[in-house]
Each structure stands twice: as C-alpha cells, then as structure tokens.
Specification:
three-stranded antiparallel β-sheet; 65 residues; mainly beta; 0% helix; two-stranded antiparallel ribbon; 34% strand
C-alpha cells in the first residue's frame, strides 16, 4: 500500500484524492477529480481544483484482489 503525504500542490491527473481545508477545520474527505480538473464538494457544488484552498493526498490507488 502506498504512503500518502499531504501537499498544497493541486492534483494534475484525474482520480480519487483525500482533501482537507487549510485550517483543518473539518475532517478530511475523499473527492473524485475529473478530467476537466474539477471535483464535487460533499454538499453537491463543483469547483476547480486549482481554486480549492487546502491540502491534497493521492491519487488513491485501487486495492488489489
């Protein structure tokens, strides 16, 4: 299993990522970054990855069988 590290660098490829806000004001959560560089917040709103203020970890690898 890969070790993930938090970074402020925005994802550059599509996939599932951990995200947490800059101030760690909420628990981290997992989002799907699409090919257009957008992701969906838990409340349903969409945002460009480059505009999100926080830290990322991933992409998350799929488990092996």
């Amino acid at each position: 299993m890969s070790a993930y590290r938090w970074t402020t660098a925005s994802p550059t490829q599509a996939g599932w990522y951990w995200f947490r806000g800059q101030a760690h004001e909420a628990d981290p959560f997992i989002v799907l970054v699409d090919e257009a560089g957008q992701f969906q917040w838990p409340d349903g709103g969409f945002q460009e990855v480059s505009l999100a203020k926080g830290e990322w970890a991933g992409p998350i690898e799929e488990p092996e069988e």
